[in-house]
Specification:
By secondary structure, this protein is of the alpha/beta class. Helix content is 43%, strand content 17%. It binds one RNA strand of 78 nucleotides through β8, β12, α6, β13 and α9.
RNA sequence: GGGUGGUUAGCUCAGUUGGUCUAGAGCGUCUGGUUUACACCCAGAAGGUCACAGGUUCGACUCCUGUACCACCCACCA
């Protein structure tokens, strides 16, 4: 016999091991079945699983389990991400701290550092693997991949080379976000802005006054820019020159007119520093102006600064200001200037814009093949969502997606770090020039040196949906083209495109958009793939999990963190999964706290105990549940019919809801069905005369329907109640949704439900403890048989000794009886009934009904409604009106009597 | 500055093309309960003018406009 309470800790690992060793997770590329594929967003190979991962795993596991049960060939590919900068930073910090090496890069060298990081990653990946298992994820471990493995490196190189040949990847001098602290470029998306209050200086520059918060960049300024229509400066012509006294002596300046200048800001005049400012850089490009570097990559001033050369910015700034002041060029200082400062998301170092030679992906060049047309990457990305090839849930993120693409600039893909896919480009310096080789493999011959940069981590992640499906062995054959690699990989041909990509909305731009970009580019020219595949057909974006008071959970604030593994240990993975999914809607943030998880633990326990009850019934009747065939599910009592009806209705609701990604709705439906209907109503009612075969089969179906939400407890219970010939629940077929029938039966058992409910309510309302006799007053003959057949039930549930069935309305009718259309319930209260109380409640009821009736009448008076609304709706309204009028009449009669 | 979303019971949130919602759930609160599965339970109750102001409609939590407050995203101004 089962224990009194479910023990997740003692169950989950055992069940998971059973699933895994049975091969239930493994997909078969040769299967005839329709495929259903999900690529797991690879967690960073650093550190621990957090709630973001947990919610992702729970959602994806539901999609996967549901579709597996529905008879699809499912594949869920797990993996980890090398997470370039993040990982390198973690390891460097570790070495700095533990080995007291201030600059590990310089001290250890490239090879050694990479070796150390790889070692660290190997350990972390083991942790991640076991944590993903703890969540119950039914992914195919035999296909686990890693973004930095050799096979994927081959594909990364193939894509790079191909894009280079198409002219989509180019090397150029561009302004980049330089992090002097980490000595690397940082992408726009990895920058955070912080509001700072700094002094704002106004200097005299020739005849103009210019403002700046960064005097240290002003050494090389030799252009003065103003708006062409600014009348204050109309006398100065574009291209005019003048000489101005400046920091290190006189300087020859040129006047430039450009619309980028805001005439209302400051004096409406500015000087520019193209090397260290994005806007200035663009202006300089447009106007074809000189650019000069002022600050070195180490963050120190260059020789152009004269006496200030070699100084750090913080040190130089006050000195520069005071020098200008001495020269009489300082007009004023405004101390309260509030502006945003760019900081690196990782390490919080100050970002210094610099011009650097970097690798870029051109998003505007129209050379991408897509459905036999030539588009730019930008256009393809827009096209696939516009035409519905990709759907985003919730829909509003499609708007944000388009908005993001509209503002998209060329993607800088090179990084000055060591951990990652190295740029597959080699240089050979000779006296006269530099030879360049761009290739999947290194060039022949001596003297070649590989580009030191690595690729943005999102470059390899962007290939994830298909790179993980390419056969590893094939990638060792260098004679195969990228196209061959795809077309000859059975997994790719069977499982791509993937069905749904599930991830947090916070990385829609980092990752989702870039997967679209890469995949459409790579597949667009392949005829066998109908000239293009998208990486996924549906994007499901979940919200962030926040703390109880709505804050973000952050590592720096451990008190706010809920560790999913702690929660699993305490309440079980099933409870954690439910608590993150039920009551959550896609794209919206949600709050999680322990009581919530405990609530779902209670639910899991409820399910456990309901099953325990069923097993006890079997035990008492000396029936082995394993021998009860599914075909034995024959309803006997009205309660059975009621349950059957509800079950069919739940089945179709839940199937529909999950298939359309409304997981919360399906979860809630199951929750209240199991608890309120099955346990509190049906099981209570069936005590005393149990229809065991029916009950066992009903429980089996419940377990099937809810398995994807709480896989562990259901699989465990399944082993106790399943039919001998069945296998594990994880592979059991999903119950076929059947359209609802049972109209008359439904009506009949509804009467039963209502009678019992009404009697209970009346007892509570009037504080009647023991009514020995209850009277059921029938307004309609047709319920007589129904009620008679359930006499025993009714007496037991109403705690009455006997009853009377009366066909006519009697004197002492009760307000509460209006709940029943065909039957009224009357408990003779032997003078206890408080007439005044009843009257008040009847009056209240009458007023409510009157208002309601008015509403319906208004509706039916409206021609537009009657003519245009579906006839079913109109009929419904007429019925409502009729029944309301009837109720009103009854109440008014009763009120007369009470007088 | 540009954009998106939210504002529903004490708390956390559902509410799918406007009409079975005369607004729901969980938690919390209160009342009652040793009913042969479960106190991680059972039976009930209280609690909301669905942010505010207009509009469209026979009818609005649901659609439109505006306001306030709260989030988030993007850009970043010398």
């Amino acid at each position: 016999m089962l224990e009194k309470a479910y023990d997740p800790a003692g169950t989950e690992d055992r069940i998971y091991a059973m699933w895994e060793s049975s091969g239930a997770f493994r997909a078969d590329a040769k299967s005839e079945k329709e495929s259903f594929t999900v690529s797991m967003p690879p967690p960073n190979a650093t550190g621990q699983l957090h709630l973001g991962h947990a919610v992702m795993l729970a959602l994806e596991d539901i999609f996967i389990r549901f579709n597996r049960m529905r008879g699809k060939e499912v594949l869920w590919v797990p993996g980890t991400d090398h997470a370039a900068i993040a990982t390198e930073n973690v390891v460097i910090k570790q070495i700095q701290k533990e080995e007291k090496i201030p600059n590990p890069r310089a001290k250890l060298g490239r090879e050694e550092l990479i070796r150390r990081i790889a070692e660290f990653v190997e350990r972390s990946r083991d942790t991640i693997r076991s944590q993903v298992r703890k969540m119950g994820s039914s992914c195919d471990w035999s296909r686990e991949r890693y973004t930095l493995e050799p096979a994927l490196n081959r594909l990364v190189n193939e894509v790079f080379v191909s894009m280079y040949r198409d002219g989509l990847i180019y090397r150029g001098h561009r302004i980049v976000n330089w992090d002097p602290k980490l000595q690397t470029t940082v992408s726009d998306d990895e920058i955070v802005y912080e509001e700072r209050k700094d002094p704002f200086y106004t200097f005299q520059y020739g005849p103009f006054q210019i403002g700046t918060s960064r005097p240290e960049t002003k050494f090389g300024d030799k252009y003065v820019v103003m708006h062409p229509e600014d009348e204050r400066y109309a006398k100065y012509k574009h291209g005019d020159t003048f000489t101005a006294e400046w920091i290190n002596g006189p300087i020859k300046a040129t006047i430039i007119k450009d619309k980028a200048v805001d005439p209302t800001f400051g004096t409406g005049v500015m000087t520019i520093t193209p090397w260290h400012d994005t806007v200035d850089f663009e202006l300089a490009e447009r106007q074809d102006l000189d650019k000069e570097q002022i600050i070195g990559f180490d963050g120190k001033l260059l020789p152009i600064a004269g006496e200030f050369e070699g100084m750090r910015i913080e040190e130089a700034r006050p000195k520069i200001v005071s020098k200008l002041e001495k020269k009489g060029l300082l007009v004023k200082i405004d101390e309260g200037y509030i502006h945003n400062v760019a900081l690196s998301q990782r390490g919080k170092g100050l970002i210094e814009p610099q011009i650097k030679e970097q690798w870029f992906i051109d998003v505007n060049k129209r050379v991408v093949q897509w459905k036999r047309r030539e588009l730019s990457l930008k256009e393809v990305m827009q096209e696939v969502v516009k035409t519905g090839l990709i759907k985003i849930i919730p829909e509003r993120f499609e708007k944000e997606y388009f908005h993001w693409i509209d503002n998209l600039r060329d993607w800088c893909i090179s990084r000055q770090i060591w951990w990652g896919h190295r740029v597959p480009v080699w240089y050979k310096k000779s006296e006269s020039a530099v030879d360049t080789h761009v290739g999947v493999t290194p060039p022949e011959g001596n003297g070649w040196e590989q580009d030191p940069d690595t690729l943005d981590t999102w470059f390899s992640s962007a290939l994830w949906t298909w790179s993980t499906l390419v056969d590893t062995k094939l990638t060792e054959d260098t004679s195969l083209s990228l196209q061959d690699l795809l077309l000859q990989s059975p997994d790719f041909m069977k499982f791509h495109p993937t069905d749904v990509l599930e991830t947090g909305y916070d990385i829609i731009f980092f990752w989702v958009a870039r997967m679209v970009l890469m995949t459409t580019y790579v597949t667009g020219s392949i005829a066998e793939l109908e000239y293009g595949q998208v990486p996924f057909e549906t994007v499901y974006l979940h919200g962030l999990i926040r703390t109880r008071d709505g804050r973000k959970m952050s590592k720096s604030d451990p008190d706010t963190m809920i560790d999913p593994l702690d929660m699993i240990g305490k309440y079980g993975a099933d409870a954690l999964r439910l608590s993150m999914i039920v009551g959550q809607s896609p794209g919206n943030d949600s709050r999680l706290y322990e009581e919530k998880i405990a609530g779902y633990r209670n639910f899991v326990n409820k399910l456990w105990n309901a099953s325990r009850f069923v097993l006890m019934q079997c035990d008492q009747a000396k029936v082995d549940p394993h021998t009860i065939a599914p075909s034995d599910m024959k309803p006997k009592s009205l309660a059975d019919h009621a349950l059957l009806y509800e079950l069919l209705s739940v089945r179709s609701d839940v199937t529909d809801a999950i298939a359309t990604y409304r997981l919360s709705e399906a979860g809630e439906r199951l929750y209240s069905f199991v608890w309120d209907f099955f346990c509190d109503w049906y099981l209570e009612l069936s005590k005393g005369e149990v229809n065991i075969p029916f009950l066992v089969n009903a429980l089996r179906e419940i377990l099937q329907l809810i398995h994807s939400y709480c896989p562990f407890v259901t699989e465990e219970l399944w082993s106790h109640v399943k039919y001998n010939e069945f296998g594990m629940l994880i592979q059991h077929p999903w119950p076929l949704p059947i359209s609802k029938g049972h109209g008359e039966e439904r009506e009949a058992f509804q009467v039963l439900i209502d009678v019992v409910t009404t009697v209970r309510r009346m007892r509570s309302d009037y504080g009647v403890e023991q009514a020995k006799t209850i009277a059921l007053i029938l307004h309609s003959q047709k319920y007589e048989d129904v009620l008679a057949s359930q006499k025993e039930h009714i007496l037991r549930l109403t705690k009455a000794d006997q009853w009377t069935l009366t066909a006519k309305p009697e004197k002492h009718q009760n307000a509460a009886s209006t709940f029943l259309p065909g039957v009224e319930v009357h408990i003779p209260l032997e003078g206890l009934l408080d007439l005044a109380k009843e009257k008040a409640s009847a009056e209240e009821e009458r007023d409510r009904l009157k208002t309601y009736k008015k509403g319906i009448e208004g509706k039916l008076k409206n021609k537009a409604f009657v003519e245009n609304a579906p006839t079913a709706v109109v009929d419904q309204e007429r019925e409502k009106l009729a029944s309301t009028e009837e109720k009103l009449k009854k109440i008014e009669e009763r009120l007369k009597m009470l007088k």
